[in-house]
Specification:
382 residues; alpha/beta; three-stranded parallel β-sheet; 11 helices; 42% helix
């Protein structure tokens, strides 16, 4: 069946086809269909834009609680950084204080390269973690730090009496281990308790360079007694000079076997290094050795306490210069320097292997005496 019908739904004349089939019916109106499809698309687009706008609004929205938490975390981190920086600064200042006396030690610290035996098998890089149960004296070595401390003084940084200021800093920290960085005369002078112009001459003997004999001749001529710190190498090579030192009234101290850096060794190894010369002197000459000098002046609390526990005094110095090099310094400047820096209670360190020292020694002794100083003899053990 077909009929024409005015479709007034859209306000336009359209031909509608009506068809029935199998009890169903289908209406077709091209105009209505087109409008309806456009309407659906419009609604769909509007809905889509509404959803997207909603999503954008949700994305832009920030949780205030989260912001506060982030700000708090940032503040805490900044405070921690500031606190760590302050602690590091304090530690650095302490370290700088401890090394103030060493700033110019390169010109005054006798690091004897020639005297050092490069035996890596004997030079351990770290202290033995298992400390021996035995404590050799009044100090419990297991409770003491083994941090290595270098030694040296700035000869131009002096007190009103001309004494290097650094020696008093070392004295204040480590004299409790029976260690001398200047003699008692210098200590009393600095306190205003005395004005004695007494000095001590000490000489290190790492090896013999045919200079020690002539030096002994000069000392005998000038009537000066000195203290010689000898290594086992020197002791074994020149027993004649060892005997002469004893016979002529000089004092002998231990300067180890191999001239190694003591704080890098185990306590047992340190004890062996310290006591070898001591035991030999007792065996060969019935001589009581009571003094010790650290190779290169390198020490720690633990090593100082060990020396003390072994019944020895550690003797450092208040004057030294680079007289140990194979290229010897010029005689005249070295002589003038040694005269210039004389001071009350001085402990002079000169190397007996130095040709420069042998050359100016006699004149230096005379010049020191002309300045009103006198030699105190062998270094005291008490």
């Amino acid at each position: 069946m077909e009929l024409d019908y005015n479709c007034g739904v859209l306000g336009r004349n359209k031909k509608i086809k009506y068809q029935t089939e199998n009890y169903g019916m289908m209406w077709s109106c091209s105009g209505v269909e087109n409008k309806w499809e456009k309407f659906k698309r419009k609604v769909k687009c509007e809905k889509g834009r509404s959803i997207m706008a909603s999503k954008r609004r949700k994305k832009k929205r920030v949780n205030p609680a989260l912001v506060r938490l982030i700000v708090l975390c940032v503040v805490i981190v900044i405070l921690l950084v500031i606190l760590i920086g302050m602690l590091a600064g304090e530690k650095k200042n302490d370290k700088q204080t401890e090394t103030t006396a060493n700033n110019n030690a390169a010109n005054n610290n006798p690091t004897t390269i020639e005297e050092t035996t490069t035996d890596n098998s004997q030079n351990e890089t770290t202290a033995d973690p298992s400390l021996p149960e035995q404590t050799f004296g009044k100090w419990d070595l297991s409770t003491l730090p083994n941090d290595k401390t270098p030694y040296g003084n700035n000869q131009d940084d002096v007190t009103a009496d001309g004494i290097p200021s650094g020696v008093f800093w070392y004295t204040s920290k480590w004299s409790k281990y029976n260690a001398d960085f200047i003699s008692d005369i210098g200590i009393k002078c600095n306190k205003g308790e005395g004005t004695e112009k007494i000095i001590y001459l000490t000489m290190d003997c790492g090896f013999d360079n045919e200079e020690t004999g002539p030096i002994l001749d000069i000392l005998k001529e000038k009537n000066v007694k000195a203290t010689f710190f000898v290594t086992s190498m020197f002791y074994d090579a020149r027993p004649d000079l060892i005997k002469r030192m004893i016979d002529e009234g000089h004092r002998i101290g231990s300067h180890t076997i191999n001239h190694l850096d003591m704080p890098t060794l185990s306590l047992d190894k340190q004890k062996e290094e310290i006591m070898d010369v001591v035991n030999k002197l007792k065996k060969d000459y019935n001589y009581d050795c009571r003094l010790f000098r650290f190779p290169e002046g390198s020490f720690s609390d633990q090593s100082l306490a060990l020396v003390n526990n072994l019944g020895l005094k550690s003797v450092f110095w208040s004057y030294a210069y680079n007289d140990y090099s194979s290229t010897q310094p010029e005689v005249q400047p070295s002589y003038e320097r040694a005269v210039k820096y004389v001071h009350p209670g001085a402990i002079y360190l000169l190397h007996a292997s130095s040709s420069t020292n042998r050359a100016f020694l006699g004149d230096w002794i005379d010049a020191v005496r002309e300045k009103g100083y006198e030699f105190g003899g062998v270094y005291p053990v008490d």
